[in-house]
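It is worth pausing here to work through a concrete case rather than discussing structure prediction in the abstract. The textbook approach is simple: state the sequence, then state the predicted structure, then interpret. We follow exactly that order.
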Amino acid sequence: MVPWLCTPVTGAWAEATITVDAARNRGYINPLIFGENVLFDSNTMWDHTQDTLKAEADDSNVIVKSRIEALAPTILRFPGGIAADLYLWEDGLGFRTTEAVHDYSTSVGLDDSPLSWKAGRGLLIDPGSGPLAYEYMQGQLGDRFDFTGLDLVNQRLTGVSSLTGSHGAGVVVRPGGRRLGKIPGRLTEDYWTNTYGIVEHLEVANALGAQPLITVNCGTGLDSAGLVTNKVSLDQRIMRAQALVAYCNGATNAPTLGVDGEGRDWRTAGYWAGKRGVDAQGRPKPPFGVKYWEVGNEPYAKADAGYTTARDYAGKFRIFAQKMKEVDPTIRVGAVGLNLPTWYGDGDTDPWNETVLRETINDLDFLIIHSYYPTIHAPMNYTQDPWFKLVMAGATQAWQDLQEIRGIIDNIADQASAPGSSPREVGLAVTEYGFLIPSQEAKYCSSLARALGDADLLMHLIKGAAPLRLLAAAAWDLHSGNPGAAIGYRFPTSYMGSGSRTIRPQYYALKMLREHLAARQLVQTEVSSSPTFAIGAKVGNINANPGVPCLEALAAVSRNGRLLTLVVLNRSLDSFPNATITANIQLHNLGFAPQSATVTKLTSPHPGDHNEDGEVVKPSGPVTYAPVPQSFNFEPHSLTIIEFRPVSLPAVINLLLGFDN
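Step two, the predicted structure:
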């Protein structure tokens, strides 16, 4: 027989047992666990010549639109990471031209006065112009130009040069770059191109049927010189957040926001709501209804532009949450927590989670955790077993820490509640996850080990969603030049190229889980007699652990109970004794007698294998077995999905007959 990932075993002794009890139904899997992060800056997902996700093949024959649609993330966090505490969301909205613009134009008229703009670079976004021949990706990132001044009275950009094409009236104009003030550790200038902003993000979310999750800038704003800096008034930061809530969710008759400490008039929430524009019938577009919001990214870290103390952040958060809810009382606002339960922020003297929770318990709706396991600061050999053992132990450590954080939340909520009343309900959201290493090489950041680590954590979150009261989860990140992106992007080497992309192992792992578990009901699954491995001493944020189980499993049934999905992860490495684990699978209380099983696998000869030099790590199968064997061999460092069906038919026929529903 072909040695598939989980080849059936006949008459063999089983090292472990996986027991599934379909009668112990634990409810539907939370769909918002299958989320992704989306970066705002030049992520190259969006084609402005087509006004859609890039739907043509790139230099490596990858079509972004179909790949993202196949992954089907259910929540999309924006604008992403440390950039969130530098980002000015209104720059991604821009203004519209009041007249035609040509390559010889020396000024550009706008439909409003760009009070916060300074001379520099601009960006024209015009799907009607078609491809441009002059720049990377043939104008898919817009038509960039330079300008030297502003006529605020007449609402014009002056001293315009470097335009390439002709554009009609009504075309979007955005700033093409923003200079940063002196913020330690940050980029110095031209960080933003504003080719993917709130407009595109909401369109992508709507097209995918995903919920947007938006992080508002808690750390910076614009000073009087037009520089992005953390030396700005708190009211500017809050009014910017209110304006964003208004744009996404507000009514056009909403109240006045006010003038900030730098003298900028933020007008009314209704003004920003009106920026949504009108539909094809000329009616104002309705609110987008963005439900989940975060205040700041990682303010406990010195590398974040919003860096501060726990007490200072908590005080700011309360004002943010209250003011944002004045615009839309239905939103849920999250405060930033630390993944190490009792730890301190950089240079802080108060434990971060306890301090933030005690100070904000009456205002926050959920605590935000970024689960990077392992996180290490000293370089290791990322091709050897000591590193891979840490990765394979990462989700187990993350789960222990999340449980401890849940306990801290509940304890503080209980203490804060009035006698005889129920404690305030505070959820958890894991809005970034992966691992962090002191390397920017994609072959180390996006290996098979990374894929299995992501799958492992996601399996823990699926099983633990109810006790954790988990609202959502989002992997880091969907598509970018980041070495850890699920779809990695490389800019083209020629002006006429469209760049190349790599579909990385974690893309496949997350897609497998999303595809096979969405809309399923979780059922009780237990693993017994699994071999274990040990973490002998603490490394980074992975504690010593004498017994990390090699085998992890979960099971779910379809809505009609006629299909059972079993997901099995083998954390073993080749060097472990009995690395291939033979498991006896016991299925109890199914509503049908399984007649066939289809098996899909994700593995490779080595956990360090990657796709940077060609696609090495990708799923194999499905392979159908009939009749269904009772024991399987699960190879080391592998993810396996087995689907049990009542009849032996091809998957497409099962779907047509409704067995998969």
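Step three, interpretation. The radius of gyration is 26 Å. DSSP finds eleven helices and 34 strands in the chain.
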